[in-house]
Design goal:
about 140 residues; alpha+beta; Immunoglobulin-like; 4-stranded antiparallel sheet; 8 strands; about 20% helix; elongated
């Protein structure tokens, strides 16, 4: 009987001793509290100056378009049957914002533009039947 039990018994003893050793070492080396310093945690993100991001979709005057864009939180917004020209201004205090606008119109010409604080980041146009266009700025 001892020949069959000694190996599993030795394994249990080694595991218990190893667990006890690890627990004692963690108690010695990882137990002290780290000091916190005033001002080391970041305050809310409203410390930056507000940034104004403008999406614009343009085309033949009076043309109709379906438009999708990302808001300041990165959530998609869809609006349908909008008369062109169209624009929306978003304001954010984030240091950067991923900006994206997609539009498809019923006319033969459509264009888009993304600008922030007066600086154009992307501008494109398309001339085709039921024209489709997109603009993207990774960091507006």
């Amino acid at each position: 009987m001892l020949k069959r039990v000694w190996l599993p018994l030795a394994l249990v003893v080694v595991l218990v001793l190893g667990g006890f050793t690890v627990s004692r070492l963690r108690g010695i080396f990882g137990s002290e509290e780290l000091p916190t310093y005033a001002g080391s945690t970041p305050d809310d993100s409203s410390n930056s100056d507000p940034k104004r991001v403008v999406y614009e979709v343009f085309g033949d005057v009076g043309a109709i378009a379906d438009i999708n864009y990302l808001d300041t939180e990165g959530e998609p917004v869809q609006i349908n049957d909008v008369s062109l020209p169209w624009s929306v201004e978003l304001e954010t205090t984030a240091p950067s914002m991923a900006a994206n606008v997609v539009a498809q119109g019923g006319s033969d010409f459509i264009g888009c533009r993304i600008s922030s604080d007066g600086e154009v980041h992307d501008e494109r146009s398309s001339s085709a039947v039921s024209a489709y266009v997109y603009c993207m700025a990774k960091s507006a």
